[in-house]
Amino acid sequence: MYDVIIIGAGVSGCAVARELSRYQVKACVLEKAEDVCCGTSKANSGIVHAGYDAMPGTLMAKLNVRGNHLMGELSEELDFPFSRKGSLVICREKDGLHRLEELKERGEKNGVEGLKILDREQVLAIEPNVSKDVIAALYAPSAGLVCPFSLNIALAENANENGIEFYLDTEVQKIRKTELGFWVQTSRGDYETRYIVNAAGVYADQFHNMVSEKKLNITPRKGEYYLLDKSAGTQVTRTIFALPTNFGKGILVTPTIHGNLLVGPTAADIEDKEGTNTTADGLAAIAEKAGQNVSGLPLKKVITSFAGLRAHEDGHDFVIEEANDAPGFIDCAGIESPGLTSAPAIGEMVAEILRKKLGLTENPHFQGRRKGILDPSKLSMEERNELIQKNPAYGNIICRCEMISEGEILDSIHRPLGARSLDGVKRRTRAGMGRCQSGFCSPRTMEILSRECGIPMEELTKSGGESRLIAGTNKDSF
Amino acid sequence: MEKKELVCIGCPMGCVMQVEMEGEEVLSVSGNTCTKGERYARKEVTDPTRIVTTTVKVKNGTAERVPVKTKSDIPKGKIFGCLRALKNVEAIAPVRIGDVILKNVAGTGVDIVATKDVEAR
Amino acid sequence: MEQYEIVIIGGGPAGLAAAVSARNAGAGQILILERDKELGGILNQCIHNGFGLHTFKEELTGPEYAARFISQVEELGIEYRLHTMVMDIDRKKVITAMSREKGMYQIQAKAVILAMGCRERPRGALNIPGYRPAGIYSAGTAQRLVNIEGLLPGRKVVILGSGDIGLIMARRMTMEGASVQVVAELMPYSGGLKRNIVQCLDDFGIPLKLSHTVIDIKGKERVEGITLAAVDEKGVPIPGTEEEYECDTLLLSVGLIPENELSSQIGVTLNPVTSGPIVDESLETDVEGVFACGNVLHVHDLVDFVSEEAAAAGKNAARYVDKFLKKENIYGKEEADPYHGQSQAAVSLIPTGGVRYTVPSIIHPDRMQEEQVVRFRVGRVYYNCYINVYLNGERLLHRKRPVMAPGEMEQIKLKESWFANVPKNAEMTIQIEEA
Questions:
Q1: Which of A180, A276, A463, B53 has its CA 20 to 30 A from that of C17?
Q2: In sequence order, which residues have a C-beta less than 8 Å from that of residue A31 and are 6 or more positions away?
């Protein structure tokens, strides 16, 4: 019998797990994928929003600003890359000016600090590649960039180190109310729990609707992106947003925390909750709109494109509360943008609900600091030599585009909730994320994974399930 | 009389050539723009041959596999026979370039030789 | 800091030939830095034959071709380091390298030869829509898996791109038991050699669909199929021409990109057409004493020409070092010498009329040999055409060619005598004239 079962090891579920691990509690996270950070959390803009978008008084507004506020300290505690680079909302037409003002006021009501309207010259002085048509921009110094994988994985690892159990490849199939709480049927056996945290992303409505009559409806809203080579990463130094219209936030252009350039997302409501395919129309739409606010975008330097699904709930606000007619079932649903930014605050809020309900007491062994995978490129040559002397694997470069060594890959495999697949290694170390898109390093990373995890090459996967990389051996069919 | 059509591999021109044959005898070659083309056509329609390259497993080597080839060209129709004959062949390290790995592969009279050195582990 | 006369970045065919030639031209301390576990570069996985017809007058496999150069390197006692990644090179030719055994360290070179080769263009660069399942490989990655590790990446294969690696892999996968459904090519012509189309596709009944591309990839976990469509002259898919193919693997052979990240770190200017450094007749880049050759300079189709080009770079680097030493030790630092003097003319080679680029793109007449090889590619297929070379409006060369194609590198030879009395900053144009 668990006190709490968290469904979903995305950034919300893992943020809840990590905050919950501050208390003495028997809790676990159930995840249908083979790794944490496999759904909405892995395919988004990687932006820490300032908080002027959401309407004052909404949960989105509150948690966005709170999440933004917490992100700095959290990135130090959990050792993940985060940088407050700031953002600009670009206005190119006179009749857009009042909307820029509106955004500023809204932001101020939401508690966003430092918002400023810059005139054309001021904008071009700090971002010379912004379109020359710019007439003004809303500058938000508190906006930032985060590595979405690192944030999610750091939260999961730290939760795990502090006693939260994780069951991967474990798909929740049915939930039934019981006298003491809930009975949860999964693809890998049944669980019983007093409380459930429903952090299932685009599937959160399905689980909610299993226990509650007050139905939720989540529509996967597809966002497609282009990722550009690092040589294009300095095109802009801040996140460049379009002025939002009735049709949404539009296409943004931003450097990523690792120095690539990201352009996107589109917004298209779809039915398939697994529909993470890119489309010809979507990719064409990005190409068409990308250049509106930033000039000279080198779209020839695209190294990959991808799509993510935002978990859009009909009410267009986060749903974070105990279901009225299902005591013990805590929703964490409708977590669309700014969900990544809000994650630390979502974790805090849900953990607080659970603390009160369960009367939890502090975990005396809680260790809030976590050491991430060492980034040798931040070391001096002397330090790096010392490291290689102690562990020669750090002297062996596996991914030549991102310059990732065998040492980092070994670390990613052997740490808590370590990588078991090619994508798992990629999200943790960036091996395979560079300009050749794993053409060079994938056979080498596969060899390391196979050796370290004792998985035969034919059984290795790209990302769990049936995503096997190798079909057989030479001449085996003769 | 039989007519065969083939594309010349001599140069990027890629002439489409027609060959008229009576049994095994070539009566005429047309469509070629040089003599190289005619020579190729005559050989290709009467006695097409290929060098086959593949790999075999290595025992106790510093590599899993060693690349090999047929020492000279073999009839095109024997390619898969040659590959099947190599399915379970294992070379023993050390292997040197030119070492015979399998004699008279698939009855062609041609040996399989290593095309790379592999040191013993 | 360690010191070497010539440091060669990369121990593939270009690096090996450059090293041998530099030593034969008298260079003393030469060091090859190679990131892999052995010399030979990509040739080690190119186990098919067809290499060396120009160089050795016989057909060799990739590993055999490499072995010929490796044994020369060994015989000449040229030093090389394996498992060694070059992390950085600065303008002063200080090279930062790293390996398990030696850690991170620096080397001061007098001359550097860039011979890093190229990498494959990934799927992302093509913007093929669809899922991102397992089973999408670049042809070279599949080649490594099949030829080095004996692993079959898939059993039912579609190949996009008819470059030589794609064609070669169609045959290799077939010969190891996979079934190759189709090879699709966006362009109306193949980028590969005729011989490979016949011997890799026709021999096995594999269809080649020109002016076709992949417009969708199906399968969420592993590739389950792709959609192929015909494209118009602009490469845009034509609605109504879609065809579905069931497959578990998509191999991409859609182009090679010279790997010039290190070159950019040094400050070498790149040619946007080739993505390789801009070089002069000595294959010297615009950073003095930094030379480039092989696929890092421009993508070749025949390794024989890589070796030839690299040999020239090696010889010129040796010559540079020789002058460099003399300048320091004999003439004193300020002495202008014919090798580095800026006094003479520099003739720019301007590709035009169907010629996409030339290597080299600058000629210093005072440094050139009696004959100067210039290599280039054309932008489309030409039949019955002429290669024309003009210097200051005067036609110096008018050579008939029955056919030219983008997939085959062309070469012409310039004569030193043409450049006698050439004015400063003259222009030489190279163009294709259709009959």
A1: B53
A2: A8, A9, A13, A38, A166, A167, A168, A169, A170
Q: Are A186 and A31 in contact (CB under 8 A)?
A: no
Interface check for C248 against chain A (CB to CB < 8 A): the answer is yes
Residue-wise pLDDT tens digits, C33-77: 999 999 999 999 999 999 998 899 999 999 999 999 999 999 999
**Which of C63, C195, C405 is opposite residue B115, by nearest beta carbon?**
C63
Q: For the domain C1-119+257-341, what is the CATH code?
A: 3.50.50.60
Q: Do the chains contact at C100 and A393, CB–CB below 8 Å? A: yes
Closest A-chain CA to B87: A475
Q: Is the ipTM of this complex over 0.95?
A: no
CB pair distance less than 8 Å for C127 and A403: no
The values of phi and psi at residue A9, to 5°, are -105, 35
For A444, half-sphere exposure in the C-beta direction (CA atoms, 13 angstrom radius) is: 20
Q: What is the pLDDT of residues B40-51, one digit of tens each?
A: 999 999 999 999
For residue B32, tell me if it sits in a domain: yes
Chain A contacts of B87, Cβ < 8 Å? 475, 478
Across the interface, whether the CB atoms of B76 and C203 are under 8 A apart is answered yes
Which residues, numbered 109 to 128 in chain C, qualify as contacts with chain A under a Cβ-Cβ cut-off of 8 Å?
A: 119-120, 122-125, 127
Query: pTM to 2 decimals?
Result: 0.94
Q: Output DSSP code: residue C197.
A: I
3 state DSSP class of A116: strand
- Same CATH fold assignment for domains C1-119+257-341 and C122-254: yes
Most C-contacting residue of A437, A445, A451 (CB-CB within 10 A), to test interface: A437
- Specify the CATH class of C122-254 in words: alpha beta
Do B57 and B99 sit in the same domain of this protein?
A: yes
Q: Can A414 be counted among the known catalytic residues?
A: no
CA distance A329 to A346: 16
| pLDDT (tens digit per residue) in A39-79 | 999 999 999 999 999 999 999 999 999 999 999 999 999 99
Contact A412, A400 (CB under 8 A): no
The mean of the pLDDT values for chain C is: 93
Residues B58 and B110 in one domain: yes
Contact C163, C170 (CB under 8 A): no
Q: Does A462 touch chain C (CB under 8 A)?
A: yes
What total number of domains does chain B contain?
2
Q: Which stretch of A149-153, A243-247, C25-29, C313-317 has the lowest confidence by average pLDDT?
A: A243-247
Do B61 and B107 fall within a single domain? Answer: yes
Does the beta-carbon distance from A474 to B55 stay under 8 Å? yes
Tell me if chain B has a CB within 8 Å of the CB of A477.
no
Q: Which of chain B's residues have a Cβ under 8 Å away from the Cβ of A475?
A: 54, 83-84, 86-87
Query: Which ranges of chain A have pLDDT less than 70?
Result: 247
Instruction: Return the domain boundaries, chain C.
Output: 1-119+257-341, 122-254, 343-435
User: pLDDT tens-digit profile of C239-256?
Assistant: 999 999 999 999 999 999
Nearest chain A CA: its distance from B6 CA (Å): 30
Query: What domains, with CATH codes, occur in chain A?
Result: 84-144+220-307 (3.30.9.10), 376-459 (1.10.10)
Cα A445 vs. chain centroid, distance in angstroms? 23
Domain around B77: 53-114
